[in-house]
Design brief:
By secondary structure, the protein is α+β, with helices and mostly antiparallel strands. Helix content is 41%, strand content 14%. It folds into two domains: 253 residues, no CATH class; 159 residues, Neutral Protease, domain 2. The strands form three sheets. It has a five-stranded mixed β-sheet with strand order 2-3-4-5-11.
């Protein structure tokens, strides 16, 4: 089974912006300095900076290297280099402290909301909330086991390592320190300096800071316990910044494999270097602020770097949160599967309910804004508009045991190359089917209130689990809410702008 959320966390391949820097003659009036461009202080001669080499092209310039940073400067600007070195060292340490350091048990406090550690440390609250929203008295044994498999300490450290690897490209930077008059003279004479441009007609220049990099490889972890008889197989994959989770559940009447497996993988992402061009920032020295401390002069450039590092950390944290979301969603799926329906009609029902329950759980534990990142059905259905006419979740979504099993060799090769499909040839994607199924539950809640879904589930439970079918589910829906299942599904295909409610407007 390829469940609906194939969560994509977009990883930028280029960070780029153009910023003006003023280049004026002595008689002109300087405008206020724009954002990360720094109007600064007097040059101060100090002792040479360690780890300094001549610039490979501009022989009158120097390049100092420390802590993943290169600083290009001229002799006499050493005080600014030392101020940058001090600031960058503190900044990098703070960035890595957010995700812990390797081979240590102490992580920063408090844990990030919806991170792996948050789930682990608040296990009871998350499991209780899933049970409440599922209408069951407590989490089942398999739900607890599955939750623990995904949130154990080893995986927590692996996830922290993945975030450290993700941050590494953002910690590789280059800062150019230039006297503005000297820079203007070089550019006006036609010299090419990376990142800088100059317009002689207006006597002004711009700086384009940019970074390009490849997604770093992720660490690998694999485990194969044999105590999950409800599972045939499960793959948990992070590759190229995209998280995917693919569990498969056996019908309760079908004998499980003699050695069922659960595989949890952070597969290594093959590819080139982690970074091809470091982030590039300028520090422009002017005559107007001579005398200011070097730390103040470089402060705004360091602040801009810090903001982008925080942004990178948020990208990496979104990957981790995506895995947490799929953990909660799959735990919810197991509860619905074990408590309400075990027949071959189950897939649309379990998938839709799992999405709704995961969204409700995150809304309660971390807020609706956080939940909206992982279950924005309006957007998903809008993107799948061309497929909606062909959606048949009631009859076109067979249970795993009723589908042809993929050839193991082809399946493994597809995973390794990133070519596995989330859809069946000639049919609607599982992702679109899942969005339609989830929308049914959100519409029930939006129209009839928070408790309506639980009342509906209670109605479903009136039929024994091994005899629950789409027909009995439809009857339970009509008995508890007055809604017609087929009509409710059809409403998910109406243009979204005409819908009276949004799935995210009511809890």
């Amino acid at each position: 089974m390829n469940p609906r959320p194939r969560l994509s966390v977009l990883v930028p391949l280029c960070v780029c912006a153009c910023l003006p820097w003023s280049s004026v003659n002595a008689s002109a009036t300087l405008p206020p300095s724009p954002l990360p461009v720094v109007s600064a202080a007097v040059e101060q001669k100090t002792a040479p900076v360690p780890d300094t080499k001549p610039h490979p092209v501009r022989k009158d310039r120097l390049v100092a290297t420390f802590d993943s940073l290169q600083v290009e400067y001229s002799s006499g600007q050493e005080a600014y280099v030392r101020a940058i070195e001090k600031g960058i060292s503190l900044m990098n340490a703070a960035a890595l402290d957010k995700v812990g350091k390797g081979n240590q048990s102490k992580f920063p406090e408090p844990p990030p909301a919806l991170g792996i550690r948050d789930l682990r440390e608040n296990r009871a609250a998350y499991l209780l909330r899933i049970a409440i929203e599922s209408g069951i008295p407590a989490a089942t044994e398999n739900q607890r086991l599955l939750f623990d498999l995904f949130t154990n300490a080893a995986d927590q450290e692996k996830m922290a390592e993945m975030r450290r690897l993700f941050l590494k490209p953002f910690l590789s930077r280059k800062i150019d320190i230039w006297d503005r008059d000297a820079l203007t003279q070089r550019l006006s004479s036609g010299e090419s300096i990376d990142g800088f441009s100059y317009d002689a007609a207006t006597n002004t220049g711009t700086f384009d800071f940019a970074a390009s990099y490849q997604t770093p490889p992720y660490p690998e972890l694999e485990r194969s316990p044999t105590d999950l008889p409800a599972f045939r197989a499960a793959d948990y994959v992070v590759r190229n910044g995209i998280a995917g989770f693919s569990p498969e559940f056996l019908d309760q009447l079908q004998k499980a494999d003699s050695t069922p497996r659960f595989v949890n993988l952070f597969r290594v992402n093959p590819g080139g270097p982690a970074i091809s061009k470091p982030m590039h920032f300028p520090v422009i020295l002017t005559r107007e602020n001579r005398g200011a401390p070097p730390e103040e002069t470089v402060g705004e450039a360091l602040e801009a770097i810090g903001q982008l590092t925080d942004l990178a950390d948020q990208f990496s944290l979104m990957i981790e949160r995506g895995l947490s979301y799929m953990t909660l969603r799959t735990v919810a799926y197991v509860g619905i599967f074990e408590s309400y329906i075990g027949t071959a009609d189950r897939e649309w029902f379990c998938q839709g309910a799992a999405d709704y329950i995961a969204w409700k759980t995150i809304s309660r534990q971390a807020g609706k804004d956080m939940a909206s990142h992982f279950c924005d059905l309006d957007s998903e259905l809008a993107q799948s508009a061309s497929e909606l006419a062909n959606v048949d979740i009631l009859h076109g979504w067979p249970a795993p045991e009723n589908r042809p099993a993929p050839e193991t060799g082809e399946h493994e090769a597809a995973i390794k190359t990133g070519q596995e499909k989330d859809e069946r040839p000639g049919t609607v994607s599982y992702s679109t089917c899942g969005a339609v199924a989830a929308r049914v539950f959100f519409l029930i809640a939006a129209r009839h209130g928070d408790d309506a879904v639980k009342t509906f589930l209670a109605g479903v439970s009136a039929t024994p689990r091994d005899r629950t079918t789409t027909a009995t589910i439809a009857k339970a829906l009509e008995d508890t809410t007055g809604e017609n299942l087929a009509a409710l599904i059809a409403e998910t295909r109406i243009p979204l702008s005409t819908l009276p409610v949004s799935s995210g407007t009511k809890s």
